[in-house]
Design goal:
3 domains; alpha+beta; 12 helices; 8-stranded antiparallel beta sheet; Rossmann fold; Thrombin, subunit H; 10-stranded mixed beta sheet
Length: 450
Amino acid sequence: MRLSEHKYRTTSRIAGQLLYVENVHAARIGEVVKVLGPHNIALEGEILEIVKDNILIQLFGETRGLNTENLEIIFTDTIRQVPLARDIIGRRFNGSFEPLDGLPMFYASEWRPARGYPINPVARLGPEEFIETGISAIDGLNTLVKGQKLPIFSCAGLPAKELVAHILQNARLRESSKRFAVIFVALGLTFNEYSFYLEALQNIESEFVAIINMADDPVMERLMAPRFALTVAEYMAFDEDMDILVLVTDMTNYCDALREISNARKELPGRRGYPGYMYSDLASLYERAGRIRDSKGSITMIPVITMPEDDITHPIPDLTGYITEGQIVLSRELHQQGVFPPIDVLPSLSRLMQKGIGPGKTRDDHRDLANQLYKNYAKGRELKKLEAIVGRDGMSEADQLLLDFADLFENEFVHQEKQTRSIYKTLDKGLEILERFDLLQHNLQKKTEA
């Protein structure tokens, strides 16, 4: 039965947080709907699918206590939009973009669609300029560049949240004249994780905006939170000429939410049960980062992915790797050795590193220094396999020196506890390690010649 132009009571089925509504004559994908039920129940939803006059709605909330006979569906003829203003800086919001910090909602100077659009490739500028994270294994060997998408691949039990908190608190531009801000997006947090990140936000030096989705929040909010964040980032970067770093943790929770909704819709599953369109869905997020011609601002993104079963070929890290420009890989072995952050620099890579280092950006010797550290560490790591077979005593003194270099590199360059190193301290530390190694090699050569 149709009540008015945009009101219906024709719900045919309720499946979890999905509503199926029949005989709808005017609707569009992404339209916001209001659902009114008995006992003053009021929920919001979004149209996911339209087949002829049948509509599929995803609700933001629980459907407990609802039945098909007492629901009133109101079609608002609007899509979900994000309020924007300069007053947004320093605020915390939930996955529905409602204030979490106890302050009233700011006055919006404008509203923009939450889903947004990827940057037009023709309008893109190549990433350049260095963003300092305070972490030597990133700044020195896998440099983050403005406009880049550089994911962190972690495993269950590794200190990914401590690493994220470190970047959140210490990321900055070397060029102090530019305005810089961090947008932090947390998806599917437990209460303990929320408390941890809340403390980290209280100690942040940069300007920030935080969007927090808890584990018990509606699953649809988990899909919308990063879209809200990127719409805010676009406003701050391309309207306010700021350089924005978007930190998203954990994209695995996002993909699991995508799979949950796909399964509820009874869609044909792809790899590991994830929907076949997960690649394009992730790309619709990642490709909103970058730089735009004739704009002074930029959006840089660091998504965190917890690899299920420590499997880097799992669909989530695998598809992420196709879209992004490198990866930072955390190592369980280094973590067990007490190294923090446990970044394995050999499988890690920043494909755009060359754009952000060198004269006038970091230091003239940065590239050569990084190459020497990589070369010697790679040799030392390879020799560790031989050491496990023949033992250290069965190896030459030259090989033993490379083994020592690998240990020294892990314990003094990669490992920095909770300290923050500037790029210059990072490069000085790398140079110091190489000089010590060169001296040992020189003494060994003199000994051999004698």
